[in-house]
C-alpha cells in the first residue's frame, strides 16, 4: 500500500477526499485530493516537472490571449465600495511605498506597475512565458520560470508578496524557506490564498471554484500554515478572512456551465455558448450580482471568518 505523506507536517497515511479534474481549461487527466488528519492540509497527489508546469501555465492558462496594449497597472481603491467588493483580499494592497518588493507569481504584471507607480523597486517571478511581453515593454525585472532564491542576495527585499500563488507551489515549505533567506530581518511576506475551511468548500464540494485543479496543488488550513511558517523561521503576525465579491458570482456561473472532464468551460474560456435555459439563468445571475446580493453574502461570511479567501501576514524576526 502506497504511503502518502503530508507535504507540510510530514504525517503519513493522508486520507483521500475526492477526485478532481481541470474544470476550467481542459488540461487532461484527473487528480486525487488528499487531506492530512494531523494538520488539516489538503493537497493534490501529483508530480510536475518544470517543463510540464511551463506547458500548463503557458498553453492552458488564458493569459496567451491578453493584449499588451490593454495592460493596465492595478490602482489603489478605498472607501465603502472597495470594501463591499472585497478589494482588500489582495496582497499588493498592504505593501508600503518606496520599498523593494518581490512579487512571486506576478501574472501579467499588474501589481508590478502598481508598486512602481508608488516609488517601489520592483521584481517579479512568473512561470507563464506571456509575462515576457509586458516585462520587455515596461522594463520590469522579472525572472521567467519557478521561484529560485539563489537569484537574489540574502536579505535583499523589504516585502515579498504571493497573491493567490502559494497554493500553486509543489513544495510550499521549501518556497517559504527560500523567501526567509531573501527578505530582510523585520521584513514581511504577505500571502493571499483560498480558504478551504470556509463555507464555499463545504457547500459546493468538489465543484468549489477554488480547488482549481491541477493549478492549485496546496490548500492550507490555519494549522498547516502555522506549521509551514514555523518550519521556515517566519512569524505569523496576523490573518484576515476577506474575499472578492466576484468570486461568488463566478461560483454560480461555474456551476451553470460545469464541463465534462477534458473539456473547456464555456464560462472560463469566454466562449459563452449557452442553451436556452442557461441563457435565462445567466440573466438571473446578472440581476443577482447587480443588486449586490453576492456582495452582502460574501461580507457576512467574511465577518464570520468563513469566507473563501484568507490573507496571512508573516514577518522575518528582527535580529
Structural class: alpha/beta
Gross morphology: globular
- Give the strand content: 15-25%
The total beta strand count reads 11
Mean pLDDT reading: 92
Q: List unreliable stretches of 5+ residues.
A: none
Q: Strand-and-helix sequence, N→C?
A: EEEHHEHEHEEHEHEHEHHHE
The CA-CA distance between the termini, in Å, is 47 Å
Number of helices: 10
Radius of gyration: 19 Å
For the biggest β-sheet, the strand order reads: 6-5-4-7-8-11-10
Let me know the largest β-sheet: 7 strands, mixed
In which range does the helix fraction lie?
25-40%
Strand and helix map with partners:
Layout: E1 15-21, E2 30-35, E3 42-44, H1 50-60, H2 80-85, E4 100-104, H3 110-117, E5 121-126, H4 131-138, E6 141-144, E7 157-163, H5 172-182, E8 183-194, H6 199-204, E9 218-219, H7 222-232, E10 235-241, H8 246-256, H9 276-290, H10 293-303, E11 309-315
Parallel strand pairs: 4-5, 4-7, 5-6, 7-8
Antiparallel strand pairs: 1-2, 2-3, 3-9, 8-11, 10-11
Helix pairs in contact: 5-7, 8-9
Task: Quickly describe the structure.
It contains ten helices and eleven strands. It has helices at 50-60, 80-85, 110-117, 131-138, 172-182, 199-204, 222-232, 246-256, 276-290, 293-303; strands at residues 15-21, 30-35, 42-44, 100-104, 121-126, 141-144, 157-163, 183-194, 218-219, 235-241, 309-315. The chain is globular, with a radius of gyration of 19 Å.
